[in-house]
């Protein structure tokens, strides 16, 4: 990042009640943040690397908030967004946690692609049903980006990929991969099949075919459907699928973590 500190000086924050840093308040209150961020069109990124990835992906910064000791080392923040600096104790009382990465930034959200457009451009996609854990969601996006998945479709009850923890666990790869949230479930699964995908329900349950046995035809344009920790895929999702697919397991283990299952399936279907 090339830095503009010389052009835009850091503005010092001395009180956690300063209205200029409203974007960063109570970051540990997941419920409040989840209700507040999307309707207000913003998200929070943490740490220089992730912030740089958001900027590279074209997200527009609203402001940055930094540990005052780090100001001199920063480079490449945009000149048109205010840079606020605060002592660690003030940072902690604003955010609710010790900001050990030293920098947070608030970004404007942008429109996600329309579902037909997203599907038209993709060959291999991940479809996530009821993924409500930010860490699993972030890990899935990181694997999806790394292993060549073209797009991610989310059911309406999935967590927000731009929630701070999901962004952090993904190492900013949520910015690299296009995604869209369905507003018609399980209708979107029919739309995915009608767009030419073979819908493969990943399940550890009985009667599924081993992933290594998929035919070349089934591998041509796969949509890999993954369910939540605990309940797994709904009956409606299972019934909508073209095939049920299992990653064989050993030692009596009954299932894999969903992010692990996703990574294995992504590798198998994109290699
Ligand atoms: C922890 S599992 C859910 C377990 C749930 N009891 C079930 O039967 O689906 C979460 C998700 O990971 C995927 N998964 C986990 N282990 C798998 C395996 N061995 N083969 C295929 N998919 C698996 C499935 O998509 C599943 O919905």
Automatic annotation (TrEMBL):
- GO BP, sorted A to Z: methylation; RNA processing
tRNA/rRNA methyltransferase SpoU type domain: which residues?
Answer: 125-267
Q: Which positions are tagged coiled coil?
A: none
CDD domains the record matches: SpoU-like_rRNA-MTase
Q: Which domain of life is it from?
A: Bacteria
Entry-linked InterPro entries: Alpha/beta_knot_MTases (IPR029028), Ribosomal_eL30-like_sf (IPR029064), rRNA_Methyltransferase (IPR051259), SpoU_MeTrfase (IPR001537), tRNA_m1G_MTases_N (IPR029026)
The GO terms describing molecular function are: RNA binding; RNA methyltransferase activity
Q: Does the keyword Zinc apply?
A: no
Record bears the keyword Ribonucleoprotein? no
PANTHER family registered for this protein in UniProt: RRNA METHYLASE, RRNA METHYLTRANSFERASE 3
The entry's protein name is tRNA G18 (Ribose-2'-O)-methylase SpoU
Lineage of the source organism? Bacteria, Bacillati, Actinomycetota, Actinomycetes, Micromonosporales
